[in-house]
Design goal:
Structural class: alpha/beta
Number of strands: 10
Keywords: Hydrolase
CATH superfamily: Alpha/Beta hydrolase fold, catalytic domain
Distance between the termini: 24 Å
GO molecular function: hydrolase activity
CATH class: Alpha Beta
Strand order of the largest sheet: 1-2-4-3-5-6-7-10
Organism: Bacillus haynesii
InterPro entries: AB_hydrolase_fold
Radius of gyration: 19 Å
Number of domains: 1
Strand content: 15-25%
Order of helices and strands: EEEHHEHHEHEHHEEEHHEH
Protein name: Alpha/beta hydrolase
CATH topology: Rossmann fold
Largest sheet: 8 strands, mixed
């Protein structure tokens, strides 16, 4: 079943629901639309699965009911520059669950959609489990991401009247000069993430851990460290370093922590379905007491 659902900003998002209605529901806001042709080939060069959403859904629907949509893609098409706050995002997710008649559900998100899952977990009692990929549950790099996002926004503002585009250089990741690349995307697309991180500057991710009484898993690739150049504020977003440093504390707090090993297991590789499904599917089966 697919349905268009109106969100808090009046934009409409396409949402799907498949699988056995008698099984636990997994909310997948990471279910990107499939792309084909040259665009798909370009993504493959970067190690990105051009049909990742489809593969996530197909990989889980034999054991679970899957509530799937592409929230990031929706927000890039329908930016919410002034109001993409944690509160409004959570309202969007709960609106989707309500419209699809789903009361209880588990949540899997990656990168910024992982931090969204943490915000969801402290604002509702409807979650049955939480999986955060590529973003640590404590000591999250909110300030670093604020710097990167702000710098990106400043670049977009200064480049919006420029005819120069580095898009053609993004075809080959080995040739990308991250120190000098120019960003040319819509200003509102970037501004909405500035708004989101601004609203997370005072967020105390340690102070909310006592509210989390559900099964929860956090994971990252062992090479998930991004060093941003001068154009992006000279900051390092060290996802794996933070997760490794706090692994013992997180496990004591009740988190399951997994480090995905491999010399190429960076932020992009660790989000691909072939990698993620082998980790999260058995974890969900175990923690949601699936017997068949």
């Amino acid at each position: 079943m697919e349905k268009n659902i109106k969100l808090t900003d009046e934009s409409e998002i396409k949402v799907g629901l498949v699988g056995n209605p008698g099984s636990p529901t997994i909310m997948l806001p990471v279910a990107k639309e499939s792309v084909y042709g040259q665009e798909a080939e370009n993504l493959k060069v970067w190690g990105v699965d051009p049909e990742s959403g489809k593969h996530f859904v197909e990989g889980l629907m034999d054991k679970f009911q899957i509530l799937y949509f592409d929230y990031e893609g929706h927000r890039l098409q329908h930016p919410n520059p002034e109001n993409l706050t944690p509160e409004s995002i959570v309202k969007d997710l709960l609106t989707i669950a309500n419209e699809m008649n789903i009361e209880k559900f588990s949540y899997y998100g990656y990168s910024w959609l992982a931090l969204v899952g943490l915000q969801l977990a402290i604002r509702t009692d409807r979650l049955e489990s939480l999986i955060m990929g590529g973003f640590p549950p404590i000591d999250g790099p909110y300030k670093e991401m604020m710097v990167v996002t702000n710098q990106t926004y400043e670049q977009v503002l200064s480049n919006q009247h420029s005819s120069v585009s580095d898009e053609q250089n993004l075809i080959n990741p080995e040739k990308v000069d991250w120190d000098n690349i120019q960003v040319k995307i819509d200003t509102n697309q970037t501004k909405q993430f500035v708004t989101m991180y601004e609203n997370l500057m005072e967020f105390d991710d340690r102070g909310i851990q006592h509210k989390l009484m559900i099964p929860r898993l956090a994971f990252a690739g062992e090479k998930d460290t991004i060093n941003y150049g001068e154009n992006f504020g000279n900051v390092t977003v060290d996802i794996i370093g933070i997760l490794q440093k706090n692994k013992q504390e997180l496990e004591h707090l009740g988190w399951d922590i997994e480090i995905l090993n491999g010399n190429d297991m960076d932020h992009t590789k660790a989000m691909q379905p072939v990698t993620v499904l082998s980790l999260i599917k058995p974890w969900l089966v175990k923690n949601l007491n699936i017997t068949r």
